[in-house]
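Long-time lurker, finally posting.

We've been working with Ubiquinol-cytochrome C reductase iron-sulfur subunit (EC) (uncultured Sulfurovum sp) and I want a structural starting point before designing mutants. I don't trust myself to interpret raw outputs, so I'm hoping someone here can both generate the structure tokens and explain anything notable. Sequence follows.
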Amino acid sequence: METKRRDFMGLGLGLFTAAGSIGALYAMKRTWDPLPSVKAAGFTTIDLAGAKENELTVEKWRGKPIFVLKKSAEMPKDDRDVIIGSDRFHVTIGLCTHLGCIPAYRKDKQDFLCACHGGLFDISGHESFGPPPSPLEIPPFKIDGTKLVLGEEGPEYKKMLEAGVTV
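Top reply, 14 upvotes:
Generated this for you. Predicted structure of Ubiquinol-cytochrome C reductase iron-sulfur subunit (EC):
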């Protein structure tokens, strides 16, 4: 009789320990998972249907400014242009690649000037003067009709990468 009681107590203790371990593992996994608010902040959708030519729109994605500019037919075409239907857009992260300042768009000269150290970027985001070491960065994007979804690598973005475009 004693062995049966000990076996039962051992089995009970083993099940209790297993349940506690599973609960602890579940709690650890929950702390590692990003919060829903963090997941939602990873994607930003911008509707470009009402965009006007040569007018800069500044959106926010993951705490960074995003420059969106609808290009006119007179503006030079570039491999970095995001094409939606028959329209071309300049879409970049609005931070200078030198020290992270926010460049100002000069509508009359159609360029971006960084006031920190005089860095200059052309209408397509290429560095053209000063200390910036590289062009303005293009965020990962996906095109969904007339909407631009930032934070997801769509086929258009992957095509840019495959073509060797500096993003």
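Before you design anything, note these points.
The first helix runs from residue 2 to 32.
Helices lie at 2-32, 36-41, 155-162.
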